[in-house]
Amino acid sequence: MYNEGITSKQEENVKSTTLRQRAVLYGIGYALGFFVIALAHAWPFIQSGKYFIFGADGYTQMFPVFCYMLEYVKGVLRTWIYDGFAFSSIPLYNFSLGLGGDIISTLNWHGFGNVFYLLALPVDQANLPLAYSLILVLQYFLAGLAFWGFAWKMGYRDWGGVLGAWVYVFTGFYLMTVEHPLMAHAVFYLPLVLWGAEKILRGENPLLLALSIF
C-alpha cells in the first residue's frame, strides 16, 4: 500500500510537470503566431508611416481622449505631489470630448480609466501615436492569452486552444481597431469574465470574475 501511494504521487507529479511543459510550449507558439500575423497586418501601415489612429473615430475621438486622459492623470498626480493628497483637488473631466450622452456610456466609449493607457504616462508627446498603437496591439495580445487560458480551463489543452485564441483575436474586430479603437477595450476582459464565471460554477474562487467585471 505504501509503495502504491508513492507511485500514485509520482505519477501525479509527472502529469503536472507534463501539463506545465505543454502550457509553456503552447504559450510560445501562440506568441510567435500572434507577432507574425500582427506584423503582417501592421506592415502596410509601417511602410506608409501611419499609426492605428488615422480612421474616423480614432483620429477625431479616441486618440484625443487618450492624450487628454494622460494629461488629466498627470495633472492629478502633480497636484497630489506638490499640494498633498486630497479628493477635493481632483479636477472635473471635460465631457465636451464625449458623445453628448450620459456619463457612464461616454467614459466607457472612450476607454477612460483603461489601465493600459497608463503605460504611456512616461512617453513624450511626439511618441504618443506610436505608444497608442502599441497599446492596442498589447491589449489584443493579452486578449488572446486570456482566451487561451479560458480554453485551457474548459479542457482544450492542445493546439486547438491556441488556434481558437488566434481566431478570437484576428477577427474583423482587430482590423476595425484602426478606425474604431474602442473595439480593443472589451476584447481582453470578455474571456476573463467567462473564465471567472466558469470558476464560480465549479465552486472555485470568485475573485477573477469580480476583478474582470470591475
What features would you describe in this structure?
The structure is a single chain. This protein is mostly helical and 214 residues long. It has helices at residues 2-48, 56-83, 103-110, 128-153, 159-169, 172-176, 183-187, 189-201, 207-213. The protein is built from 9 helices and no strands. The radius of gyration is 21 Å and the shape is globular.
What's the structural blueprint in terms of helices and strands?
Layout lengths: L1 H47 L7 H28 L19 H8 L17 H26 L5 H11 L2 H5 L6 H5 L1 H13 L5 H7 L1
SSE ordering: HHHHHHHHH
Weakly predicted, low-confidence segments: none
The count of β-strands is 0
DSSP helix fraction? over 70%
Question: Approximately how much beta-strand content do the residues carry?
Answer: under 5%
Largest sheet: none
End-to-end C-alpha gap: 49 Å
How many helices? Answer: 9
* Secondary structure category: mainly alpha
> How would you describe the shape?
globular
Radius of gyration in whole Å, from Cα?
Answer: 21 Å
* Average pLDDT, all residues: 82
